[in-house]
Every structure is written in C-alpha cells, then in structure tokens.
Amino acid sequence: MSKKYLVITGGSSGIGLATAQLFLEKEFQVINLSRNLCPLTDVVNIQVDLAAKGFEENLKQELLPQLENSETAILVHNAARLDKDNVENIQANNLRDILEINLVAPTILNQIVMPKMSKGSAIIYVGSTLSEKAVPSAFSYVTSKHAVVGLMRATCQDLIDRGIHTACVCPGFTDTLMLRNHLNHDETIIQQIKTMNAQNRLIEPTEIAQTIYFAATNPIINGAILHANLGQKER
Question: What is the distance between the alpha carbons of residues 113 and 60, in angstroms, rounded to a whole number?
Fold first, then answer.
C-alpha cells in the first residue's frame, strides 16, 4: 500500500476527476471527498456535503483512519460552487452557502489533515482566472476565488517552518460540466470563449491536473499563484 496520499475535494468529475486519475498513475492512494462518488475503482470515496454545518465531525471519523500510515499527504481544495449572481441580486444566505464551500470548508479540512502532514506534503488551492480579475454575473464566485488567493498566501506564511508548501492553481476556461452548465450549454457562447486565449480552444481538465501535480510536488513554488489559461486575451 502506498504511503503517498492525495485528499481531494470534488474528485467525482471535471478537474477533480482528472487530478485523481493522474495521482493514481503516480502511485498515490487517492481519497475523494464529495457528495458524488468518483468513478475510478481505486479511489476511496467519502461522501460529504461541504456546505453542511458540522460536516467535520463525521468526516474526521472516516478520513483520519485512512491517513494513519501516510508519509506524504497532498490536500487539493478543488470543490467549488459557481452561481449566476450580481451585486444587485445576491442573496445573503446564498453567499453564505457559497463561502462555506469555497472558503470555510478548505479551512476546516486543513485543520483535519495537517496533523497527518510531514515535510514534503502540500496544500494546493484551485482558484480561477477570476481570482485576480472579474466578469459580470459571477459576483459570489469572483469574491470567493479572490479570497482563495488570500487563504493560500496566509497558509504559506503560517506553515513557513513546517516543510509543507502551498500554491494556488488558477485555471482558465476549462472544458468541464460546471462551465458548460454555467453557459447553459450555449455553443455560440462556448465558441466565443474559445477565441479568448492564444490557442482558440478550451483547456482540457487533464492539463489542469498536470499543473496541480507540478505544484504539489515542487516546494520551490511555495506561496505561488499559477495561472493556467493558455494565455488569456484581455478585452
């Protein structure tokens, strides 16, 4: 049994699924935390709703025994919620729910997993191009993804003497169900988005997975923001 562990949120589809697959190929034991099951047979699934108050109590009982023999632990905060909203119509309760998933849950998970992390382990946050810019009608997502960068930078400083490194990988427009749902599967809009980078295409989830793996296994980039967006055109 491998003593290298990946704990990832939202590993059931999209970037999370591609990341789980890659880490399996790199001989990590992969533990997925999400409401839906990861379809990969060698992944350990722990079903959890990261927006639920007090989710950590049951999670500790299931997760910590899985990490008992870990030597290296990589924690990837991938799960996120993307709503269509703006500064005029955002509902306070919706914003609270989104912040629970995108910000509070990663903080709780850090506290659960860090005691099992030795030197060489890593905490990787998945941000977004919208971690450092904004577009209309994504108020809560933009707000939370900006804050994810702050989480990563604070993590770096607080763990500076632990030998645990951190980074924030910021994907551009990636071909995931979340993106297509957000765009209402409108092929006209999707084609327009493809023209917004240097290669006129959507990014593949496997490309972001490779970037996450690079960040997780290279401590020299501690505290770094890595934009993985094919050279997004500014307009």
Answer: 9
Positions of E strands within 48-119 = 72-77
pTM for the full model?
0.93
Question: Residue 85 and residue 211: Cα distance in Å, rounded?
Answer: 29
Residue 168 has pLDDT above 90, yes or no: yes
Determine the average pLDDT of the residues in 25-33.
Answer: 97
Residue 1 scores a pLDDT above 60:
no
Whole-number Å distance between alpha carbons of 203 and 166: 23
Inter-residue contact 32 to 38 (CB < 8 Å): yes
Helix (H, G, I), strand (E, B) or coil at 26: coil
Residue 229 has a CB neighbour count (10 Å cut-off) of 19
Instruction: For residue 130, give the H/E element and its range.
Output: none
